[in-house]
Task: inverse folding
């Protein structure tokens, strides 16, 4: 092993020397950890990662790696479910920089792109011409064209528009020998093309009988495209070779016109196999997509996001979601009506509302992540995208259910039923001894099963490390040997993605989770280990979803560096648990660096399909890192982590004026910022100059007591209590006008938020218990408690239950806690004031969106008649994050994504609405404008 390690190090040094000083290589432990996994179950730590900044540099990197004898694995978004995008040598990230759309030719309906172009970016560029790239996987907002071609990706609409191979017209490729070749139809210009033609001509019979038997036979090499009757199309053949033959440097793809009329039909069946059996009948209606959806996925969405997140569906336990398109709206509508009643469903509905249809497609597109957490135990990819001819789909689903039961496993099937492709996440017992062996046994049995139906191990994700070992179950030895000869033409030294398709690694080798079974950190804390391994790598955090209300992941959108994504951080934490690459546990510097720019926005808690809560993980890491080492903590943990304590001290001693002098006077404020570890560019907040907001609001109510009304308790957080602002009075006056009899909670009931975000969890627990002593008696009487600060209110619906596990009082308080919008929209007879003619730019606090839900606020604001501009994404201040030294630039960059452009576009007369203290401060700091809370806005228009 030492000899092999020394040889690998020498090769790595040779690679770096060949590329020179200003190269794109990164061999840090942090980056290697980030790229150690894709969306599969596998973990292979690379020797180095390259992020080429141009295709010229990409070619130089490939040439140098070949010369050094270092294995090469190309990687797009890293969303491979089969382990195609991990490798032991050099991983090349195409997505970081190679995103140029070189040309769109609307007349020829083609596009030429670099390999890292994201599919949705190409769609957006082609849309003005009425065109699109046909295949659209569920990961279309982050997967790359190069990666799609590499795996022959399909997606739901491949039924109507074809697979990636069907839409690939030409490829520029660097082979495993370093040769640059241009691939396309009827090409005999290169030695590679001529050698392939000779191989095919010598093996016509097995290719014609074993390859390309149905559309979703993606496994192995698609040699059918090289047949003379198919135009010897080397570009289409190369699609689906999974990086084992060469690296794509440029691709020319076909664009198609999207039909103008589109509708969805939802069909409900008693079981998923019965939905599968109906596929052949549904196909008679000419759909562009038929997607299978299991009731358990739908229920998971309802449980996590609330019943309103799931549109009504026909009765059944399994559904077929069918898309019909056409040029004539009457014809499409008639076809939809006939389909709804003509396919043997329990119920069939035409979904006319595009928004409802989009929500259903959204559930389906998130299925890979949702399925991983929908069962009692974690479920994994592996037997992920098998496919059979559609006429056998119902039988295959029934048989697959039987096989799962035989092996004592559970699976959650869904998929592209129109093509016979079935996705299934399975609860392989990777956390238990012997789990890998059970995985291997099942994979072999499942391979035999699908082969018995004339099917394919892979229907769109490729074989990768998961299924390459299974190829002899569906291909003859002659064809398996032919695959090896084809590989030898392109890559005789096996440097291109070794271990995949040809001479494959065993399917049970290098599985990620079992490698942690004996890890000390996992043994000490199995719950944390399981939590960070919830990340399955689907990479939704890499996509910009703010246009549809997403929050995750603001730091990645600002930097573009995958270490700053939710997935990247989860991978680093997984490596911390593993202990092989990152060896210092909680105190590993790589862990600290990965979490440094996490804003603790909790966007991932809602937006990540697997429910990753990176904010909670960051708090835990900080807690463990500084356990029994208080003096080693950053000064900001004392200044901002204990901010409620300092605020109470100022208001009780009535020294707000003196505090403001210290915070606002030049020289003094510089010294205060330095001591508090505050960035010198960040303006300091102003304390209240009288008493606390609690005492002020309580005094108002004593002087002007409500004559009558329904009781409600007002819980004023530490920020609103100590710092300038009229939020508390605005809330009280709004409640009075709505017919309530509010009572301000005057006792200290701090939720411990700042202790949570700085990882001082013992202190947080102590404050939460004291707050429960105050709040629980009120909640136990059935009195609603209205919170003022969203981040503090959200603590009771998230962190409190996790930190005080077993304290039943938490549930009672959480059940009584309300936002103002939640209370008012449930108040019989209450009507919002008329704000017609106004424009409201609303910045929801991240925790409001991600934990509490902002839908009630949105509905309330829209009922005023105002033009409402709701923003997604984070404001960038995020509690103590944007105030701390070293974070100012990131804070401003995050604000520049959504918040600042919206304020500037709305103009000076727009009302700025922000319930969060952080959001209001960010707006004031960066634009010099005051934002109102919802209570202030309503009170001002009573």
Result:
């Amino acid at each position: 092993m030492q000899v092999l390690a020394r040889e690998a190090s020498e090769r790595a040094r040779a690679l770096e020397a060949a590329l020179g000083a200003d190269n794109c290589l990164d061999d840090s432990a942090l980056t290697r950890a980030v790229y150690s996994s894709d969306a599969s179950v596998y973990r292979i730590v690379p020797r180095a990662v390259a992020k080429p900044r141009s295709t010229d540099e990409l070619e130089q990197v490939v040439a140098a790696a070949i010369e050094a004898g270092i294995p090469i694995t190309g990687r797009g978004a890293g969303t491979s479910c089969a382990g195609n995008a991990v490798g032991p040598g050099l991983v090349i990230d195409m997505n970081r920089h190679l995103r140029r759309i070189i040309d769109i030719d609307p007349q020829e309906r083609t596009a030429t792109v670099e390999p890292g172009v994201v599919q949705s970016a190409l769609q957006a560029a082609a849309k003005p011409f009425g065109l699109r790239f046909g295949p659209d996987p569920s990961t279309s907002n982050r997967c790359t064209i190069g990666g799609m071609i590499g795996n022959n990706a399909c997606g739901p609409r491949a039924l109507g528009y074809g697979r990636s191979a069907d839409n690939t017209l030409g490829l520029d490729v660097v082979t495993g020998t370093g040769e640059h070749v241009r691939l396309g139809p009827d090409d005999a210009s290169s030695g590679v093309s001529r050698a392939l033609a000779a191989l095919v001509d010598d093996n016509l019979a097995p290719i014609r009988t074993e390859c390309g038997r149905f559309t979703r036979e993606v496994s192995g090499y698609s040699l059918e495209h090289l047949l003379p009757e198919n135009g010897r199309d080397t570009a289409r053949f190369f699609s689906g070779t999974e990086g084992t033959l060469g690296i794509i440097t440029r691709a020319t793809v076909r664009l198609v016109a999207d039909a103008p009329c589109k509708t969805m039909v939802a069909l409900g069946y008693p079981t998923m196999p019965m939905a599968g059996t109906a596929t052949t009948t549904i196909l008679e209606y000419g759909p562009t997509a038929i997607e299978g959806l299991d009731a358990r996925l739908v229920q998971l969405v309802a449980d996590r996001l609330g019943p309103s997140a799931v549109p009504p569906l026909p009765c059944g336990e399994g559904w077929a979601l069918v898309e019909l398109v056409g040029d004539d709206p009457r014809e499409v509508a008639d076809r939809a009506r006939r389909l709804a009643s003509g396919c043997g469903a329990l119920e069939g509905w035409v979904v006319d509302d595009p928004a409802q249809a989009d929500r259903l497609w959204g559930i389906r597109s998130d299925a890979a992540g949702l399925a991983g957490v929908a069962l009692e135990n974690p479920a994994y990819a592996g037997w992920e995208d098998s496919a059979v001819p559609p006429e056998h789909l119902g039988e295959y689903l029934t048989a697959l259910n039987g096989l799962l039961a035989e092996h004592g496993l559970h699976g959650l099937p869904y998929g592209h039923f129109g093509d016979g492709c079935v996705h299934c996440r399975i609860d392989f017992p990777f956390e238990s001894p012997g789990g890998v062996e059970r995985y291997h046994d099942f994979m072999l049995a499942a391979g035999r099963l699908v082969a018995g139906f004339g099917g394919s191990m892979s229907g769109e994700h490729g074989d990768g490390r998961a299924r390459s070992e299974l190829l002899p179950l569906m291909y003859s030895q002659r064809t398996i040997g032919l695959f090896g000869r084809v590989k030898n033409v392109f890559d005789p030294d096996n440097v291109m993605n070794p271990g995949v398709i040809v001479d494959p690694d065993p399917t049970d080798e290098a599985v990620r989770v079992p490698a942690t079974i004996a890890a000390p950190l996992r043994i000490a804390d199995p719950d944390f280990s399981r939590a960070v391994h919830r990340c399955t790598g689907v990479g939704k955090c890499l996509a910009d979803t703010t246009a549809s209300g997403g929050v995750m992941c603001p730091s990645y959108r600002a930097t573009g560096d995958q270490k700053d994504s939710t997935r990247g951080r989860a991978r680093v934490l997984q490596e911390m648990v593993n202990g092989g690459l990152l060896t210092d546990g909680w105190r590993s510097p790589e862990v600290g660096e990965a979490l440094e720019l996490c804003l603790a926005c909790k966007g991932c808690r809602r937006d990540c399909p697997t429910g990753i809560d990176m904010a909670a993980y960051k708090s835990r890491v900080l807690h463990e890192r500084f356990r029994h080492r208080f003096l080693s903590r950053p000064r900001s943990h004392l200044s901002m982590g204990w901010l409620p304590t300092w605020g109470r001290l100022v208001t009780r001693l009535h020294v707000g004026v003196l505090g403001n002098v210290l915070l606002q006077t030049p020289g003094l404020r510089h010294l205060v910022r330095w001591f508090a570890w505050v960035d010198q560019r960040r303006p300091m907040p102003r304390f209240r100059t009288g008493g606390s907001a609690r005492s002020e609001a309580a005094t108002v109510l004593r002087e002007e007591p409500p004559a009558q009304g329904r009781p409600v308790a007002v819980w004023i957080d530490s920020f609103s209590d100590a710092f300038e602002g009229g939020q508390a009075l605005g809330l009280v006056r709004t409640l009075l006008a709505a017919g309530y009899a509010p009572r301000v909670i005057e006792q200290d009931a701090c939720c411990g938020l700042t202790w949570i975000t700085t990882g001082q969890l013992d202190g947080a627990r102590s404050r939460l218990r004291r707050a429960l002593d105050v709040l629980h008696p009120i909640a136990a009487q059935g009195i609603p408690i209205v919170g003022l600060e969203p981040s503090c209110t959200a603590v009771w619906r998230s962190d409190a239950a996790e930190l005080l596990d077993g304290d039943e009082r938490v549930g009672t308080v959480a059940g009584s806690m309300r936002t103002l919008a939640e209370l008012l929209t449930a108040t019989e007879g209450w009507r919002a004031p008329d704000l017609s003619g106004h424009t409201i730019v609303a910045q929801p606090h991240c925790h409001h969106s991600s934990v509490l839900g902002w839908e009630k606020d949105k509905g309330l604001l829209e009922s005023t008649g105002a033009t409402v501009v709701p923003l997604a994404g984070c404001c960038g201040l995020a509690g103590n994050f944007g105030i701390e030294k070293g974070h100012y630039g990131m804070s401003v960059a995050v604000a520049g994504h959504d918040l600042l452009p919206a304020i500037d576009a709305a103009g000076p007369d727009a009302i700025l609405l922000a319930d969060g203290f952080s959001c209001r401060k960010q707006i004031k700091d960066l634009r010099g404008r005051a934002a109102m809370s919802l209570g202030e806005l309503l009170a001002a228009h009573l």
Summary: The chain has a mean pLDDT of 94. Residues 30 and 593 are 8 Å apart (CA to CA). The first helix runs from residue 2 to 19. The longest strand covers residues 246-254.
